Amino acid sequence: MTAELVAVRGQVEDQRSTPVVADFDEYVAARYQHLVRTARLLTQDWALAEDLVQSALVKCWGSWDSIRSEDPTAYVRRTLMTTYFSWWRRRRSHPERLTEEDLGQIAVDDHTMVDNADLLDALRSLPKRMCAVIVLRYFEDLTESQTAAALGCSIGTVKSQTHRGLRRLHVELTSGEDVSRR
């Protein structure tokens, strides 16, 4: 059993049947790194991202019997998003700025997630919901309807947040170029 499974299962004491436990273990083993990558883009902090994923998985564990027969990924993704927004409403603080050393550690599954510190800083400057829309649409490659379901909002909200977010990212990322060209 991996350390991730031990951490998640260690937080919840439950008398579940073996097939449910095995199904949950398989799901976590298959999706944990992907979920952490998404959480890392949102939080820009490895430890906080892992805590966020573990909290979401603990919440899902209690309902695993009912959600495993449907699309557990959509349910877990929605739980991850609601947990993320809940944390930020309580904390009201901002993550630390990424260093080059942090960027070297972002590789997941032998793929570099994002190797552009300017892009990560620009993402960090967006409001939390707008950042979540951009991450889900362009890093997770979700459709507008899947993103809306994950965030609990309308497709129109996803469209408008995507448009505004991309425009703000463009301004953030090109404003430095204009200064350097002078």
TrEMBL record:
- Any Gene Ontology biological process: DNA-templated transcription initiation
Which residue ranges does the record assign to the RNA polymerase sigma-70 region domain? Answer: 30-92
Enumerate the InterPro entries for this protein.
RNA_pol_sigma-70-like (IPR039425), RNA_pol_sigma-70_dom (IPR014284), RNA_pol_sigma-E_actinobac (IPR014325), RNA_pol_sigma70_r2 (IPR007627), RNA_pol_sigma70_r4_t2 (IPR013249), RNA_pol_sigma_r2 (IPR013325), RNA_pol_sigma_r3/r4-like (IPR013324), WH-like_DNA-bd_sf (IPR036388)
Question: Under what name is this protein listed?
Answer: SigE family RNA polymerase sigma factor
Q: Which Pfam families match?
A: Sigma70_r2, Sigma70_r4_2
What family is this protein classified in? Belongs to the sigma-70 factor family. ECF subfamily.
Keyword Transcription included in the entry's annotation = yes
Which lineage is the organism of this entry classified under, starting from the top rank? Bacteria, Bacillati, Actinomycetota, Actinomycetes, Propionibacteriales
Record GO terms (molecular function): DNA binding; sigma factor activity
Respond yes or no to whether keyword Transcription regulation is given for this record. yes
The alphabetized UniProt keywords are: DNA-binding, Sigma factor, Transcription, Transcription regulation
Q: Which CDD domains match?
A: Sigma70_r4
Q: Where is the RNA polymerase sigma factor 70 region 4 type domain?
A: 118-169
